[in-house]
Amino acid sequence: MTSARDAWTLCIDFGTAFSKAAAAPTGAWSRFHPEDVRPLMLSQENGANPFLLDSAVFIDEDRILFGRAAIERADALAYKKRQALRSFKTLLSVSDLDRVLNTVAPASIDPHRVFPMRDLVVLYLAYLLAATDRAIRSDPVLSAASSIERRYAAPAWRSGDSGGLHASVVRLFGEAEALRAALGDKILAPQGVTLKGVGDALPGALAHPRSVYMGLVFEATAAAAYTSIGLEESASHMIVVDMGAGTTDIAAVARSGGRMEELPAARVTLKQAGDFIDKVVANIVLDANGWARSPEQQSVLWRLLMRHMRDIKESLFADGRAMLRHENRTVSVTLRDLEKDKDFKVFLKNLEKAYDESMAAVRDSAIERKRRGIQSIAVGGGANAPFIQALLKRKPSRSGKLVIEARPATPEWAFAPEFRGNLAPVFPQLSIAIGGALAPETMLAARSELSLAAAGRNGIPAAPD
Amino acid sequence: MPPAKRPSPKRPAKRTTAKRAPPVDALAAAAWLEADSALAEALVESDRAITANTAEGRDEALALLSLALGRAARRRGLSRIGKRGASEAFDGARHELALRFKRAPKRVRVEIEGVARGREILIKARVAPVRAKRT
Questions:
Q1: Shortest CA distance to A39 belongs to which of A105, A121, A156, A135?
Q2: Which residues does chain B have within 8 Å of residue A141's beta carbon, measured at their own beta carbons?
Q3: The pLDDT value given to residue A456
Q4: A with B: how many residue pairs have Cβ under 8 Å apart?
C-alpha cells in the first residue's frame, strides 16, 4: 500500500448522465495494489449515489442550478418545455468544438438567451471542479497527497486532431478554474448561484483563465488499462465496445512496448444505442397490450415503461424476461420478443457490421505487428447485454491463428478482499474514471498545460494560480 | 548515576491502514442505494404472493418477486454458483453434498444453486453425485 504523501493521479469521466472521478497513486501501473484505487465521492445529495454527480445545468428565472437540483427543477418545469443542459460528453467530443461552443443555447435551456454554450460548459466544469476538490478535501488519503495530477477521459471517435481539441478543452478547464475561484463553494449549494453573481464573475474568468495541467486519456485506453493492469500476460491489441445512451462507440488500442496507441482505422460510431433499445422494448410492450388503445392509455404506459426501463433492461438481459405491474395488469416482455423484433434485427445487423469493420482493422494491425492476441471488452450501460457479449466472441475473417479473448466488464482485481465485495457492483459505473487514473503517462492521448502566457484573451495576461 | 538509557530499537512507522483503507462503507452504501428499490419491490410482491387468492395471482407475484430479488442481488454483487441440473467436477469449496459419502464423488449434479459474493462463498451449491453409467 502506498503512503498518503505520495503523488496521485486523478481522472474525471464525463458520462452522458453522470460525471465520475477516481484517483490512483502515480506509478500504480508498475506497482499495483487494488486497494489503493480511490473513487471520489463527488455528490453529497441525500439519497444519491455519492460517486455519481448528475451532469446537468439549469437556468432558472434568476439562478443557475447544478446537478440533482438542476434535474429536479427541469422536471418540475417540463410542462413549460424547459430543459436542463446535459450530455457535456457529447458536446465536448464534437469535431467542430469551437463553433459549437459559440452557438447560443436554445430557449428551452436558456430562456434569457444570453449564454453561449461555452458559458454553460464552463459553468458545469466549475461545478465539477468544486465537487472534485470537496471530495479530495474530505478524503483522508487524498487530502494528504503531495500532488495530484489531473486527467479527463474522452471517447476516441472525435476528429483526428485530438491534440487541437484537447487544447480547447484544457482552455475550458482553465476558465472553469478561474470561475470556481471567483464563485467559491457557493456553486455547490443546492440553491445554486444567482444570475447576477455569474454575470459578475464569468467575463473575468473567460478573460483570465487559470493555469491548468490536464492529460487526455481515451476511454478505450482507460478500459485497456483497468483490464490489463496487474496481469502478467495481456494481449497487445484490445477492441472496446461502449454502448451508452445515445451512441455505440467502438474503438481499439494497440500496445507497443510501454506505449498504448489508439487505432484510428478501428473507430466506428453508431448513432443507435441504449435509447434506441428502450424505444424498441417499449414498442414491443405497447404492441402486445391491445387494451392500451387510446393515445392517453398508450402515453401513460409509455411513460411508465420509460421510468422503469433500467430495471426492465437489467432483468431482460440477465433473466431473459422482465415484468411490470400497471394498474390491475401485469405487462411482460422477453428477450426472445426483442430478438424477433424487426427494428432490433436491423440494429443488430448494423452493430455486427460496425464491429466486424473495426475488428478487421485490429486484425490487420495485429498481423502486421506479428502479434497473436486480441482482447475484446464491453463498457458502458449495455456491457452485459447478451448481444454485446456475443459480439465480443466474434472472430474476424482471415484471422488465422489470432486468438480472440473476451474479457469481463469487471476485472478480477475489483473483487480484492480489501473491498469486501463492495467495489465490483459499482465498478461498471466507475470503470473509465478508474482506468484513466491507473493508465501510465505513456498511454495518454495528449497532455498539455494552459500556460499563463498563452492563456489570456485579447492580450490580457492570465490570472496567477 | 542512573544507568545510561539504552537506545530503543526504532520501531517501524505504524501503518495507519484504517485511514488508507479504500472507501468501503461508501461503496457499500452506493450499492445498497441501487439495491434498495428492488428490495422494496420484492417485499411488496412477497406480500402479494402470500395473500393471493388465485394460483395465477400467486404465480405472477412470485415471478415479479424473483425478478426483483435478482436485481437486488446483482446490485449487491451476488451471483449464483452452478446451474440447476448441470453436471460439474466436485469442488468442496463450492459444493455441499446432500448426503454424506465415504469418498468425495468426482462429478456432481447441481440440485440447488449456491450464492457467492465476489470470491466469498455465501451458500454452497447443494449437489448430488453423478453415477457413472453402467455399460
A1: A135
A2: 19-20
A3: 38
A4: 93
pTM for this model (two decimals): 0.85
Give how far A208 is from chain B: nearest CA, Å.
Answer: 37
Q: Are A322 and A332 in contact (CB under 8 A)?
A: yes
* B positions 69-128 inside 8 Å of A (CB): 70-71, 74-77, 117-120
Span A321-348, pLDDT tens digits: 999 999 889 999 999 999 999 999 999 9
Range of the domain at A396: 232-273+349-417
Q: How many Cα neighbours within 13 Å face the side chain of A212?
A: 25
Residues of chain A with pLDDT under 50: 452-465
Per DSSP, the three-state class of B39 is helix
Tell me: do A206 and A353 sit in the same domain. no
Same domain, yes or no, for A57 and A164? yes
Could you tell me if residue A427 is inside a domain?
no
Among A325, A342, A359, give the residue marking a domain's end.
Answer: A342
- Cβ of A127: how many Cβ atoms within 10 Å? 29
How many Å lie between the alpha carbon of A78 and the closest alpha carbon of chain B?
25
User: Measured between CA atoms, how close is B120 to chain A, in angstroms?
Assistant: 8
Domain identity same for A251 and A280: no
Closest in B20, B30, B31 to A4, CB measured: B20
B25: cell is 462503507
| A107 in the same domain as A197 | yes
Cβ separation A314–B71 shorter than 8 A? yes
What pLDDT was estimated at residue B134?
A: 53
Q: B32-82 pLDDT, tens per residue?
A: 988 999 999 999 999 999 999 999 999 999 999 999 999 999 999 999 999
What is the ipTM score, two decimals?
0.80
Clarify whether residues A120 and A252 are in a common domain: no
- Evaluate whether A255 touches A239 at the Cβ level (below 8 Å): no
pLDDT for A450 equals 58
A47, A117: one domain: yes
Q: Report CB contact under 8 Å: B34, A321.
A: no
User: Is the sign of the CA dihedral A276, A282, A286, A288 positive or negative?
Assistant: positive
**Do both A161 and A294 map to the same domain?**
no
* Residue A380 lies inside a defined structural domain of this protein: yes
CA A223-A277-A252 angle, to 5 degrees, is 25
Cα angle, residue A171 at apex, residues A166 and A172 outer, rounded to 5°: 100
Residue B9: pLDDT over 70: no
Hunting for cell 462503507 — which residue is that? B25
Q: Is residue A293 part of a domain?
A: yes
Residue A61 belongs to some domain of the structure: yes
Our count of domains for chain A comes to 3
CA distance A325 to A329: 6
In chain B, which residue's Cα lies nearest the Cα of A42?
A: B26
* A144 and A194 housed in the same domain: yes
**Chain A residues lying within 8 Å of B17, measured CB to CB:** 1
